Amino acid sequence: MRDREQPVLRGSGGLVLRPWEAGDAPVVLEAYQDPAIQQWNLRTFASLAEAGAWIAQWEGQWLAERDGCWAVTDGAGAVLGRAALRGVRLMDGVAECTYWVLPAARAGFGLEGTLRGAMQHPDGWHDMHLHARLQGDPEAAPGPAPAGP
């Protein structure tokens, strides 16, 4: 990872995963104010400076071959969410996939299961949920869905 620049990944439907940029701090700050994202994520931000510091640390994580984090954007460049590989173990080809999705972009990922007591929050252990979508699954109707694990 450290020997190459973090890639920009293009997906179907015009989705683009790109490294976070300093100008994304307002979207990050707003995202972490969303109650559904707060439910499934420990991190909180109180200022643009904190959101900016979160963005800035990802380049070092990539270079250290620990984590990769991308802004998920639409064809016009608007941020829709986050996708990350955390705890990368290159020798084993293993990483944890984490994500969140902004409210306007939530739909289409069916609940696969519940990971009971998988994450400790300040108020105790919380269940986490696992969602998935396979190529060929029927399109889901737009509507609210959980923000992510």
Account of the 3D structure:
This protein is α+β, with helices and mostly antiparallel strands and 149 residues long. It has a domain at 9-105: Aminopeptidase (3-Layer(aba) Sandwich). Helices cover 19% and strands 35% of the residues. It is built from three helices and seven strands. It has helices at 25-31, 35-40, 48-63; strands spanning 9-10, 16-19, 68-73, 79-89, 94-101, 110-121, 124-132. The chain has a five-stranded antiparallel sheet with strand order 1-2-3-4-5, covered by helices on one side. Strands 6-7 form a two-stranded antiparallel ribbon. β6 (110-121) and β7 (124-132) form a beta hairpin. α1 packs across α3. The longest helix has 16 residues, at 48-63. The two termini are 25 Å apart. Mean pLDDT is 88; it is low at 141-146.
Tell me the Rg in angstroms.
Answer: 16 Å
Structural class by secondary-structure content: alpha+beta
Helix-strand pattern, N to C? EEHHHEEEEE
| Number of separate strands | 7
The portion of residues assigned to helices is: 10-25%
Shape: globular
Summed over residues and divided by their number, the pLDDT gives a mean of: 88
CATH-level-2 architecture of the domain at 9-105: 3-Layer(aba) Sandwich
Main beta sheet strand tally, sense and closure: 5 strands, antiparallel
**Unreliable residue stretches:** 141-146
Determine the number of helices (DSSP H or I, runs of at least 4 residues).
3
